[in-house]
Amino acid sequence: MTTIFRQYTFDDSFEQVFVSSKFLKEYQIALTLAIDYDEDGVPTNGVFRPTWDLTKVTPLAITQFKKDHPDVNVKVFISIGNNGTQYPFCPIEKKSWIDNATKSLTNIIKDKEYDLQVDGIDIFYQHIETDPSDFVECISQVIKNLKENGVIKVASISPSFAVNKEYYFSLYKSCSSLIDWVDYQFQNEVTSVFDPNTLVDIYNKLGTDFYPKKKLFAGYSAENEDWATLSPIVFFLGGIDIIKKRKGPGISIHYHNYYVETPLHH
């Protein structure tokens, strides 16, 4: 059983994860988050900045991780968006947002100071304060620009229950050929998931009604506050079923380094 594993992280905790080519064909490091708000929380209309720990996520750390795991394909993503209600998607003006986002994300990805060998971007807006057509237009155009300019090779979207149908599925339909992976966030279900079969049923329905299963990850948050919705054991058992029996391509987990007293960026 070889699969894809994605870790969402804002620090270098990916260095502590056991990675073996016996189980994994690809390991994705998704850096959280790049946001288009300044340090005071004022919207910057598409001018993105990184909020992950720049002292820990360094070119050397990424290079060393790749050297340590030569048999596994390591890919780096920048996640743009929000976790919770802070920093919602809310462009002040669409055209300038698209231009600013294209330019600022290009700068982050190509910047020699960061030089994190970024392969792609991940769209992780869980709170959106605009209508679906604006979201679709802005995000699809930025993905298109970055791919056509050779800035990124891959793009993923990370929907959850509240924003899936209107926003993310509309986005997917508008530019499905540009979206390589769909990482559905199960920790944001409205109703708690108490058994693995329920998780698998939701996954199957997503694969029938919305996205092709060959692109569909099962996503999960191991942060303590998300356990009420979905416990680790339920996700673990359901995730194994999805990968083994349903032929799902991969899973993702959000967790941070509990050994370091670093505040989470929300």
UniProtKB/TrEMBL annotation:
Alphabetical list of InterPro entries matching this protein: Chitinase-like, GH, Glyco_hydro18_cat
Gene3D superfamilies from the UniProt entry: Glycosidases
GO term, biological process aspect, one: carbohydrate metabolic process
Domain (GH18): residue spans on this chain: 1-266
SUPFAM superfamilies the UniProt entry points to: (Trans)glycosidases
Protein name: GH18 domain-containing protein
